[in-house]
Amino acid sequence: MTNNTIQGSGLGLRRALAGALKSSIDAGDQLPIDFLEIAPENWMNVGGRLSKQLRYFTERFPFACHGLSLSIGSPAPLDEEFVRDVGRFLDEHGIGVYSEHLSYCSDVGHMYDLMPLPFTEEAVNYVAERIQRVQDILGRRLIVENVSAYVEPGKQMSEPEFVQAVLQKADCDLLLDVNNVYVNSVNHGYNPHDYITQMPTDRIRYYHIAGHYTENDSLLVDTHGADVIDPVWALLQHAYETHGQKATLLERDFNFPELSELSSELERIRSYQEDMSDVGPSHLTSVRGI
Fold it and tell me: Which of 29, 127, 209, 235 has the fewest Cβ atoms surrounding its Cβ within 10 A?
């Protein structure tokens, strides 16, 4: 059975965290985790201990998959066999939520980085056609994530305009990464609150939040290796106020703190969500859609 619903506060399941999480669950600890998220590429076609480890968690939590290598904006042909492999993995584990980055990471070879797309009408049409093909193969909606970037090549429209145009043209959903909005706002000099406000409420499936590295006052690097900072927390609250509270995933990829520290950040997500639940949707500052 496929689970298309995630809600509450979620955590990215990394192999380095799995042992501590399992021990805590087995000990009966009440962790503030409502769902988990994995990169399917890191778990597809594994067997033995890793397969059993994944099954332990999928039997206990709703799951989302957040891909790394679909390379939806690549100039190379879409790897349709890879898409089918992902679909089989989603079906095997009953996962209905699949997101990917609105970027590309390969051409004739894999670049192991997320490269920015040009904000042009041509890129909108190209990416939308490929997203639609992925959705046709999978038989489910693809969720695309706004990405952090350090250059804006060939820019003919703003990033919010580009993201909205792709969502409309492809008829897909959005994973709104709040930290990426903040990082890009510093790197490229725009208002992050305005960006959040411009996103279409009806397309937002869930949120990401994470920490980053400050190179200098005008350059932030999206690392997922630090605590979430207060301006990003404030931006998440703005997203909730504008679009409503939705499932929110805490990303942490390295420099892992004690599980209690991660739990504190997850509890903070829950507290913001509970505050919005008390207010109710009629008090949202706007309800947007396309």
Answer: 29
Domains, the chain, ordered by start = 9-283 (3.20.20.150)
DSSP characters over 194-221:
HHHHHS-GGGEEEEEEE--EEEETTEEE
Counts for the chain of helices (H) and strands (E), in that order:
9, 12
Q: Is the pLDDT of residue 123 over 80?
A: yes
136, 146, 36, 59 alpha-carbon torsion, rounded to 10°: 0
Distance CA 24, CA 21 (A): 5
The pair of structure tokens assigned to 210 is: 């994470």
Of all helices (H) and strands (E), which one includes residue 73? none
Residue 222: strand, helix, or coil: coil
Interior/surface letters 36-68, b for 16+ CB within 10 angstroms, e for the rest = bbbebbebbeeeeeeeebbeebbeebbbbbbbe
- Report the pLDDT averaged over residues 195-200: 98
Question: Against a cut of 0.85, is the pTM above it?
Answer: yes
Per the DSSP assignment, residues forming a β-bridge with 213 are 221
How far is it, in rounded angstroms, from Cα 95 to Cα 5?
A: 9
